Amino acid sequence: MDSIAEALYQQMRLTILLSAQDGVESSPFTPAYLLAWDEEIYPILHEGPKWHKPHANCFKISKERAEELFHYLLEHFDSGEELTFYGLEDKLGIKGTSYSTGNWERYEVISLCQYFYLHRVFNETFWQTLTRNGECPTEAHSITTKPEEMHIYFC
Q1: CA distances (Å), 46 to each of 13, 29, 37, 134, in order?
Q2: Is this prediction's pTM over 0.85?
């Protein structure tokens, strides 16, 4: 990616995230859309807004990767088969925070799941099972963070 494209992406990212400087609820953007920009996830469930489309190649988690995880979760949801976070990690080849045999990292899966949760994809039972105590790492509990508890930090 060239430096001009990166600069334009970062400018758009800053503009969108600054809209939540007084709290997520004061932003004209949905919490899920804000999280996508904050975590640098291509917002696959937001096809209406066009702000992210010119920057598709700049997101750390690409449209293709987001769709891959979404479709895997959707298959489990549609089948009614229980899916825990550790089960999901096993399927994706993730072995904790320091080792992965696949092309996924734990933080990416947590961020994407939080995006899907904030967009109200799947039902509460699905998310409770995925983040059940003892069957997920502590950090996976952040998946079900409510919009009013979200914070965007500028570092």
Answers
A1: 15, 11, 12, 33
A2: yes
Query: Can you read off the two tokens belonging to residue 79?
Result: 């089948």
Which residue reads 């809209």 in tokens?
A: 19
CA distances from 136 to 27, 70, 88, 148 (A): 31, 19, 10, 23
CA–CA dist 116, 36 (Å, integer)? 10
* 154 within a domain of the structure (yes/no): no
Residue 61 within any structural domain of the chain? yes
Q: What is the pLDDT of residues 91-137, one digit of tens each?
A: 999 987 766 677 899 999 999 999 999 999 999 999 999 999 999 99
Q: Alpha-carbon distance 57 to 141, whole Å? A: 29
Listing DSSP states for 55-103 in one string gives GGGG-SB-HHHHHHHHHHHHHHHHHT----HHHHHHHHTEETTTEESSS
Q: Does residue 142 belong to any structural domain of this protein? A: yes
Q: Residue 120: which domain range?
A: 3-149
